[in-house]
Amino acid sequence: MPSPDLMKELLRGVLQGDDAAAAELVQAIYTEPDVKSCEGFALDRTAAVDLTLATDNFGIWVDPLDATAEYVSGKGSEKLFHGVFLSGLHCVTILIGVFDLKTGEPVMGVINQPFFEKDETTQIWKSRCVWGLSYAGQRAHSGIRSIRPQYPESAKPQVVIMSGSETDAIKEALDECFTTIYAAGAGYKFLSLTLGLADAYILSRATTFKWDSCAPHAILRAIGGGVCDLSKALIDFDLQFVENNRKYELQYLHPDDPDAEIDECWLNAGGILAYANIDALTEIVTKLRQVMADGLQQLDD
């Protein structure tokens, strides 16, 4: 990392000569973070992990600000549905994911939720950090889980979290089989899944990038879940031997479509099927194959 003085000069160039802003950013960059004030850091949970990792074997995907629109709006999160905030600052996340440069598999991930909880007295936000490691047969994670609200008996048992930008046909099809939640921010939807507030995160379109999914993918693997290419799940999944479907999980080394334009080549081109528990995957995919086919048929009609 460059010296603080050089970093300040570099930032001044980006910030059109704003000396004060550059100085504040430099102070933030070079100040050791107070991890004790961050909910869920729990580094003691790594004590059982015995790994020596060569840093040159790994790459990093970073999303410094997911749910940008929610951050820019600056609005609080008022609507809470089944334990999930649907919009607002709660949906903003910072995503840091590490992947293996040989296999492309996700290895470690951190999701920071900077606007987790607001102190009504001081009006200061408290952050929350969720992390996970899954590598060489070893797993560790922050262990944070939320208590899923009690659903009415009439509710469908499996909960799917989705984007509000899905087509009406897809929404209607999935509403038939699942309890559906529509929330802002890819990172926040992944976070809700890792916290146990949903059973799956489904996205039928190529609107997320590798930096959106790498960190949560690693965390989900650490707790027994994963993130698959939805298009492959709908066609190629082995429903008898679910473990065989690991080959359809997202990878982070190569573009899904190498011929795509530079601003699109790192998209998750086949959509997303993220899950927190592999045991529930067979039933979810079976239902998805039918309801997604119905939804896509409606689009063709």
The helix-and-strand class reads alpha+beta
Query: How many strands in all?
Result: 12
Helix content: 25-40%
**Biggest sheet layout:** 5 strands, antiparallel
Strand order of the largest sheet: 1-4-5-6-7
Distance between the termini: 56 Å
Strand residue percentage: 15-25%
Number of helices: 8
Uncertain residue ranges: none
H/E series: HHEHEEEEEEEHEHEHEHEH
Q: What best-fitting shape do the alpha-carbon axes yield?
A: globular
Average pLDDT rating: 87
The value of Rg in angstroms is 20 Å
Strand-helix topology:
Blueprint (H helix, E strand, L loop, with lengths): L3 H11 L4 H12 L27 E9 L1 H6 L6 E2 L2 E2 L7 E8 L5 E13 L6 E11 L2 E4 L17 E4 L5 H8 L3 E4 L3 H9 L5 E4 L6 H13 L3 E4 H7 L35 E4 L5 H20 L1
Parallel strand pairs: 8-9, 8-10
Antiparallel strand pairs: 1-4, 2-3, 4-5, 5-6, 6-7, 10-12, 11-12
Helix pairs in contact: 1-2, 4-8, 5-6
Pick out its properties.
301 residues; alpha+beta; 5-stranded mixed beta sheet; 12 strands; globular
Q: Summarize this, please?
A:
The protein has helices at residues 4-14, 19-30, 68-73, 168-175, 186-194, 210-222, 230-236, 281-300, and strands spanning 58-66, 80-81, 84-85, 93-100, 106-118, 125-135, 138-141, 159-162, 179-182, 200-203, 226-229, 272-275. It is an alpha+beta fold.
